[in-house]
Design brief:
Layout (H helix, E strand, L loop, with lengths): L39 E4 L2 E7 L12 E9 L5 E4 H4 L5 E4 L9 H5 L7 E7 L1 H6 L12 H4 L3 E12 L1 H36 L13 E6 L10 E11 L4 E4 L9 E4 L6 H7 L7 E6 L19 E12 L2
Antiparallel strand pairs: 1-2, 2-6, 3-4, 3-5, 3-7, 6-7, 8-12, 9-10, 9-11, 9-13, 12-13
């Protein structure tokens, strides 16, 4: 019943912003540049070789997304990192933002079209200057590669989405997600109605927040208020009868004590604050006041929760 942190859910295409380099410093001269003799220097820190030109179609443009095969290589053409392999063989998606300097990763990609393949090298000092700090390391390399003067990018553009295409795709995805959410919420509502019918409580109506509350044994003591220390025996169930949590079973069973108004999910707290000392209540909490779209142990996403609670007031304050 404790509140769990909400998780991010809707995500835009993976943007490899960590590859947005800036050039810093003079050449270190630690390695021969003979491997660059077949490359064209297109910027102070960048050398380029085109391998294949695809059909001349629109590039992704600012705010668009390019889907590609992407590998990092060293000056010997040896593999350093295969980003596609890290994603199970799927394409790498890069969303275009403003380049930080002429010849950086995004600047080079902005000149490539669908079907193009190229290799370009960038001075590694740029990565170390702009993407590493005491707090973070956005581009880690093995020690054997971290001393390189250059790092190479081997790229093949598979497809692109322009900014308008990205926005259209995201709008479609959002509508689909909302439709799925509504379908699950409606399914949960129907399951609650079924539970009430089976348990002969069809006359029980929800309040304005969607909570069904029934007092089984009226409390004769004080009203619970925020900050009240309470002791409860409880049973938590799904509408199909599955018990997901209880302190009424087991050899070491004991009541649970907590401060009303703290720690618990919203719907549970709301119902506890309706109880009086010595009372016993049943309440059904809608998904939006429980765990919502999150899975929590045996509780599936968008589940209504049924609780039967016996309560005693044991003190006040924290």
């Amino acid at each position: 019943m404790k509140r769990i942190p909400a998780l991010f859910t809707l995500v835009l295409f993976v943007a490899l912003s960590l590859l947005n380099w800036s050039f810093a410093g003079k050449d270190k001269g630690k390695q021969s540049r003979k491997f660059l003799k077949t490359y064209q220097q297109v910027a102070p820190a960048t050398w380029l070789k085109m391998h294949k030109a695809g059909p001349r179609v629109d590039s992704a443009g600012m705010g668009g997304v390019a889907f590609m095969k992407l590998k990092l290589i060293d000056h010997r053409d040896s593999l350093v990192t295969d980003f596609n392999a890290q994603r199970g063989g799927g394409p790498v998606a890069v969303q275009f933002d403003k380049p930080r300097f002429k010849g950086d990763f995004l600047d080079m990609l902005s000149h490539l079209n669908v079907g193009d393949s190229a290799t370009f090298y960038i001075v590694l000092d740029s990565i170390k200057k702009y993407y590493r700090s005491a707090a973070s390391n956005d581009f880690p390399l093995d020690p054997k590669n971290d001393s390189l003067e250059f790092i190479g990018f081997r790229v093949k553009i598979d497809s692109v989405y322009t900014k308008s295409m990205v926005e259209m795709k995201m709008a479609v995805m959002q509508r689909e997600k909302q439709a799925q959410q509504q379908a699950l919420i409606e399914k949960s509502r129907q399951e609650v109605l079924w539970y009430l019918a089976v348990n002969e409580m069809s006359d029980l109506k929800p309040d304005s927040k969607g909570i069904y509350y029934k007092e089984l044994v009226p409390g004769t003591g004080a009203q619970v208020t925020p900050g009240t220390k309470v002791s409860v025996w409880y049973r938590g169930m799904l509408t199909n009868g599955l018990i997901f949590d209880t302190n009424l079973a087991g050899p070491q069973r004991m009541p649970m004590e907590f401060i009303a108004g703290q720690q618990m999910i919203t719907g549970f707290t709301e119902c506890i604050l309706r109880m009086k000392d010595g009372g016993k209540s049943l309440f059904i909490i809608p998904p939006e006041l429980a765990y919502g779209e999150q899975q929590n142990g045996a509780i599936p996403p968008y589940s209504a929760l049924v609780f039967v609670v016996e309560l005693k007031i044991v003190g006040t304050g924290n």
